[in-house]
Specification:
Layout (H helix, E strand, L loop, with lengths): L2 E14 L2 E14 L3 E5 L6 H8 L7 E10 L2 E2 L5 H7 L4 E4 L3 H4 L6 H12 L4 H14 L5 H4 L9 H13 L5 E5 L7 H18 L2 E5 L3 H7 L2 E6 L2 E7 H7 L3 H8 L39 H5 L5 E2 L6 E2 L2 H12 L4
Parallel strand pairs: 3-8, 3-9, 6-7, 7-8
Antiparallel strand pairs: 1-2, 1-4, 4-5, 9-10, 10-12, 11-12
Helix pairs in contact: 4-5, 5-7, 7-8
């Protein structure tokens, strides 16, 4: 299968006065053509930094220290800023986490959507405005001609997010990166936005990299899932395997944290402890201080990401590998 995006051993570090922060540490992610791939994890795990690295939007004190970002076979890290300006918004689009801060408050919605078209296509302004109205209508914004004259503060959060999706969709990109596209939206608007993303994939063959902490969203739209923690991928598999048989203790903890309607009388579960300071990571596995299955080895060595044989399932966990070795010895794996 052709891959739209291949991130290989990406390292994005921030050089601060207190030391080096490995925000993205040896991360590899593949987004096949026409698929929706999710990245999940707690805040600060490196999800957004991975996306910003793909878009080449990392600024000082941040720096991409190594790896490759292959977009349709071309390494984006070898592109100049002018070359990236042509790619951004055209072949690769991004929906940022907070639409109120992503949209310019002093320009109308129509001006901003039209500008996104004119930057990448040599057409008349009137034609660009016509296309802007069409895209606003396509993403479900009522009275699009009227909304063209509105400013961002005059729109609800759901409408602003639809504008952002419209701007991302207008050039029919090969890759759409969506960073928490449904945060702070009610479930009705969330469902509509997820529908729009699936429609973009189905009609245009667009590949989507979806960044979220919402496991319900992942279950609804994703094909593959990468679970990140402290700048590293801890588990990767297809969405069905993840929910049916998550192996990594961190992934299991995330799934257990989802409120269940059949357990409303119980106290909501949360993973004990806190995410470690990236300046002072544990000597061994970064999750060892919170893991209920941690062994002596987990506190001393850092596990590698291992692919299980006969499965497209990757894990970074000593205790999981020990379990599989025992099952293999007993003929059950």
């Amino acid at each position: 299968m052709e891959n739209t995006l291949e991130i290989k051993h990406l390292k994005t570090y921030f050089h601060t006065m207190k030391g080096v922060v490995p925000a993205v540490d040896d991360v590899s992610i593949t987004v096949p053509k026409g698929k929706i791939v999710g990245i999940v994890g707690e805040s600060g795990c490196g999800k957004s930094m991975t996306a910003m690295s793909v878009m080449q939007l990392i600024r000082k004190p941040g720096k991409i220290e190594g790896g490759q970002i292959l977009f349709k076979g071309e390494d984006l890290l070898e592109k100049s800023e002018k070359e990236m300006e042509k790619i951004r918004g055209d072949r690769i689009s991004m929906i940022f986490q907070e639409p109120m801060t992503s949209l310019n408050p002093v320009y109308t919605i129509g001006h901003q959507v039209t500008e996104a078209i004119l930057i990448h296509e040599k057409i008349e302004k009137g034609e660009a405005e016509k296309r802007a109205v069409e895209i606003l209508s396509a993403v479900g914004i009522p009275e699009p001609e009227k909304r063209m004259k509105s400013y961002p503060h005059q729109l609800s959060g759901g409408l602003r997010q639809r504008v952002m999706i419209g701007m991302a969709m207008v050039m029919k990109p090969d890759l759409l990166i969506a960073d928490e596209p449904t945060t702070a939206l009610d479930v009705t608007i969330e469902a509509q936005i997820l529908h729009l993303m699936r429609k973009l994939r189905d009609e245009n063959g667009t590949s989507i990299l979806l960044i979220t902490h919402n496991m319900g969203v992942v279950a609804e739209v994703c094909d593959d899932v990468y679970v990140m923690y402290a700048g590293k991928v801890m588990e990767h598999t297809d969405v069905f395997t993840l929910f049916k048989q998550a192996e990594h203790p961190y992934t299991a903890g995330l799934l257990r944290s989802i409120p269940r309607i059949d357990a409303v009388k119980d106290r909501l579960y949360s993973i004990p402890g806190v995410v470690p300071n990236l300046l002072h990571l544990p000597a061994g596995c970064s999750f060892s201080t919170r893991c209920p299955y941690a062994m002596d080895r987990c506190y001393e060595e850092r596990p590698e990401l291992v692919c299980l044989e006969a499965e497209k399932h990757e894990l970074r966990c000593f205790s999981c590998m020990t379990k599989f070795e025992r099952e293999a010895e007993n003929g059950r794996f």
